[in-house]
Fold these 2 entries.
Entry 1:
Amino acid sequence: MRFLLQNLIQYRKEAILAPALKMLEAFFDLFVPLVTADIINNGIAGRDSGYILVRTGILILLGFLGLAASITAQYFAAKAAIGASASMRRGLFRHIESFGFGELDALGTGTLVTRMTSDINQVQNAVNMFLRLFLRSPFIVFGSMILAFTISVPAAIIFVITIPLLAVVIFGLMKLTRPRYRKAQESLDATTTLVRENLTGVRVVRAFGREASETETFQRTNQELTHRQLTAGKLSALMNPLTFVLVNLALIAILRTGAVEINVGNLAQGNVIALVNYLSQILVELVKLANLVVLITRGLASADRVQAVMDKQPVMQYGTAAFPEREAVASVYGNLTNSSLTRENGKAAGVSKAMAGLSQVPAVDFDHVSLTYPGAGGEALTDLAFSAPEGASIGVIGGTGSGKSSLVNLIPRFYDATRGTVRLFGRDVREYSRTSLHQNVAVVLQKAQLFSGTIRSNLLMGRANATDEELWEALEAAQAAEVVRKKAGGLDEPVEQGGRNFSGGQKQRLTIARALVARPRILILDDAASALDYATDAALRKALRELPGKMTVFIVSQRASSVMACDEILVLEDGKIAERGTHEKLLTANGIYRDIYESQFKKAGEGR
C-alpha cells in the first residue's frame, strides 16, 4: 500500500476532485425523489400542469448537472488511476533493474512479469472505481437515510436497521475473499511461469516428445488456478443476492409501513414513492459498493504483492569509484604478450621473474575467492587465487558444472563473492559505481540475446554515441560484417523479438560486436562462440588479439581450440583451479587439460 500511496500522491488534485465531483452528483441525485414526491403530492393531486412542467424542468436540470459532474469526475478518476499505475510500473521496473542476479533468481521471471502487468492492472481498476464510488455510495446511503427521517420516522427506522446489516454482509465477505484472491494471484504466477517455460522451450519439448506430459502439468496447474479463482468468485458472488434480499425485505417493510401511515393520514402517496426511490438508490449504490469491494479486495491483494517486491532490497550496494584511466595503469603491460601474472598462495608462479616484477596492478585479481549461491548445499567456487594483467587473455576450461561461468560472473559483479576479494585494477570490485563497472566490463553470454529493433539499435546498446565506422569495425572484429552486408537493410535491417530472424551463430557474432562497440577494458566471452564453426572461431580469436589497446579478455569454453592461444589457461574442476599455465605447459602435465585436448583431436599433439 505504501508504494501505491507514494505514486497516487503525485495526482492528489485529481484524487481529490474526482470524489468531490461524485459527491456533487450524489447531492443532485438525492433531490430527485423529493421533487418527484412534490410533483405527485401537489402537481398531480392538484391537476396543475404548470406546476408539473416547472418541477419536470427542475428534474431535467438536476439530470444535466449530475451528468456533467459525473463525466468530469470520471475523467479525473481515470487520470489519477492510470497515472499512478504507470508511475508504479516505472518504479517497479527501476527497482527490479537494481536487483542482482541473486534476487532475480529467487523471485523468478514469471512472478515479476505477473506483478508488473496483471497485479498493477488490478490496482489500477481498484483505484479508478474507489475514487468514483468511495464517497458517492456512502453519501447516497446515509443521505437517503437522513432524508427518510424528514419524510417519516417509522419508515426511516427500517433504513437504520437495513444499512448496518448490509455493511456486515459486504465487509464480512471482503474479509473472506481477500486472502483467497491473494492465493489466486500466486497460482497465476505459477501458471505464467509454466507457460513461459513451455513457449521458450517448445523445441526441446517437441524434440523429446513431452507434449503430453507438459500438457498434463499445465492442466494440473491451471486447475489449481481455476479452483482458487472459483472459490474467491463464489464468495464474491454471494454479495449481490444477499444485498438484494435484504433491500427487497426492507422495501416490503417500507410499503407496508407506508400503507399504514397513508391510511391514518400521516403520510402522502408521493412521500411513499420518495421512500421507495431512496431505497432503490440505496440498493443501486450498495450493489455498486459490493462490486467495488470485490475490486478493492483484488486490488489490495495485488498491491500487497507489488509491495513485497518493492520491500525486497538489493543485497548489492555499489560504491562511487570510477575505473582508472588507461594511461594510469602500468604502461609496461602493452609490451607484454603471451604471458600473464598468476599467483598461488601469494607467490607468482608459471611466469617469468621479469613479468612478476613489472605487473604491479593487475587488471583482474582473485584473492582467495569462494562463492556459494543462495540456498545451495555447497560452494560453487572454492579458494580461487589468480591475477591477470591488463591486455592478457585468460582461458577458462573445464567440465560441465566445474564453475566456469560462476568465476567470470564475479568480475562484472553479477554475484558477490561469499569469501575473499575480487579486485579490478587494484580496487575492490564493490567500490566501483554500477555505471563505471558496466561501461568497462562487457560480458557476452552463451545464450545470445538480441532485442527487437534493428541491427544498429542493438549495437548502439554497447555505446549510444558510436559512429557507423566504429560499428563496422566492431562487426569486422566479431566476424559479423559479412552477415550484415548480406542483409538488404544493412545496419538498419530489422531484428525480430529475441533475434529469431537470425541463426544461432549470427546472433552470437552480433552480440560479440555489441560488446566490442562498448570498448570495454575487460571482455568476457562466456562460451559465446559455441555456435561458431572452428574456422570462424579461430578468425574471431585472431581479430581480438589484433585489436588496438590493452583489453583483458576472458574466454570461457569447453573447446580446447578456443583457449589454446591464451596467455594463461585456468582448468577448473569442482569449483577449484585444478591446473593452470600455458597450452604447452598443460599438455606436458598429463592432467585434465591434456585429457580434454586429446578427446577433441584425432591425434595427440595435433594443433600444438
Entry 2:
Amino acid sequence: MKNVLIAALICLAPASSLAGPDWSANWSANWSEGVPIPPGGRPNPYGTPDSGENSQYAHDVLRGKIHAQVYPVSVTGALPPYRPLAKVMAAISQIRSLDDLFGWIGMHPYPENDATGIYFAPRPDPAQAGPRMGVGLIETPDGTAFTLSCAECHSANLFGKTVLGMTNRFPRANETFVAAKIGSELITDSMLRNFGDATDGEIRMFHRLREHLKSVGAKIPATIGLDTSLAQVALSLARRNDDPYATPSADAAKNPRPEPLENQVADSKPAVWWNVKYKDRWLSDGSVVAGSPIFTNLLWNEIGRGGDLVQLENWFAENEGVIRELTSAVFSAEAPRFTDFFPPERLSLDRAKHGESIFNQHCAGCHGTYEKAWSRSDAASLSPTQLLETTLVNYLQKTFVVDVGTDPGRYLGMTSLERDLNPLEISQKNGIVIRAQKGYVPPPLVGIWARWPYFHNNSAPTLCAVLTRHEDRPSGYYAGEANDPGTDFDLPCNGYPENRFGWSAYYDTAREGMSNSGHDEGIFLKNGEELLTSDEKSDLIVFLQTL
C-alpha cells in the first residue's frame, strides 16, 4: 500500500518553461458546432504557414510534442516536490527508483531513436525531462516539482517503438489520484524532513498539494486500461462551490454535492490523436459539440487537479500560442502503419482489394471511405509497401453519433458534465458546449490495426471479435504489452492472442460498464442472420490492416 501511496503523489502536476513567448501571428481555428471537415481532415486547423521543416507549422508541431511530454500549464492545481518524495520512496517502499515507479504508473521509456518524425517525439531538455515519457520537472520558487503530462495516457509501446499519440493500454493515472488523496494525508512533515531532507519550501509545496487534493474527486476504473477522467471532473466539480468559476472551498470539499458518477460506471479508453483531424465533435460519444478540444481537455485536467479556474483563464489568455502548438501536434499525428512492423507480403493484395469492396458495402456509411494507392493509374510502378498506402481519408463532413447497442455507460455519464461544465464562465467565454448524446461516434478507422482492444470500453480483444455476434464474443480475455509481434499479437484476427500465458490483466465483460454487446445487428447481421461469410470477414480484416 505504501508503494501505491507514494506513487500517487506524482500524478498531479503540470507545468513547463516551454510556454515562452509566442513569436507568430495570431492565427485562429474554427471550433464552432457543425463546421464541415474537408476530405483528408484538417491536420493544420489554424492554417499556419507550412512550407517545410523550417515553417511556422513545423515549429508549432515540434513545440507541441514537447508540451505533450512536459505539461505546460504553469498555474496547475498541484505540484508535488520532487527531491523529498524520491528519498521518502526509497526509504519506506520496495520501489527503489523513480523509473520503477513511473513504470508502475504505465509510462513508457523514451525511444532509443530520438527522431522527431511521425512516431517519436523530441526529448525535452534534460533539465525538464523525467526518466520516462510524460514525466517532467519544473523549477518553482519553493523547489523542483514533478509534472505529468498528456503522454502518460497518450503514448504507448508498439512492438518496441514508443508511439506518441497512441492509446496507452495500461495507464494508472486515475488509480494514482485515488491513492494520492490518501497518501497526502498520511505523509507527515516529519517524514518529509527526516526521510526526504525536505526544505521549508518543499514542505510548503506539499501543503499546497494536500489542500488542492481536497477539491479532487477520483475513482479507480472498472479495469486497468480504462479511464475515469470523466468521473473525476464531475466528482471534482461536486467538491467545489456551485458558482461560475467552481471556486474551491473547504466546506464544499468536506460536504460534496451528490453525484451519480460516484457509483455509475462511465469508463472509456484514452483516444488516439490521429483521428481528431477528421472530426468536428469530440470524445467517443461526440458530446463536446463546440470548442477547442485541447482547450477543453486542459480545462478538465485542471478541474481534476484542484486548479483555480480564474488563474487558469488568465493563463489561457496569455498562452494562446501554447494552445496552438499543442493542438498542432495532436492534429498532425499520424497512425503507425502495418508495414512499419511487418513486411508487406504478410498481407494479400487480392484479399485486401476484396475486403475493400466488402467494407464499402457494409461499413463506409458510418466509418467513411479510404482511397488506396492500388487504385491509382500508376499502381503498376509502385512497390508492395506503396500499394498498401491510403492516399486519402474521406471521413464524414459532419461527425455524427449512432447507437449500435454497445455498452451505454460512457454516454450516459455525460449528463453530469453537460449540467456542470456548460454554465462555467470559462466554458461560455471560450465557446465550449457539451451536449449529452445517445450512442457513440463511429470513428475513422485510420490505424485501426494498432488500436486493439476494440470498442470504447475495450470489450472486444480482436477484430474477429468485433465481427462476431455479441453473444458469441469472448466473455473475457487476458491482456498484456505488445512487445513481440510473434507472441503478443494475433495477426489473422488482429488483436490479443487467445490463451496467451503469462499475462495477468484480465477483462471481464460481465462487469458493469464493460459489456461487449452491440455492433452486430444491421451491420453484419440482418434479422440475426450473417451477411458475411467467414472468408469475407477475413478479407475485410486484411483491408482494415492496410488503413
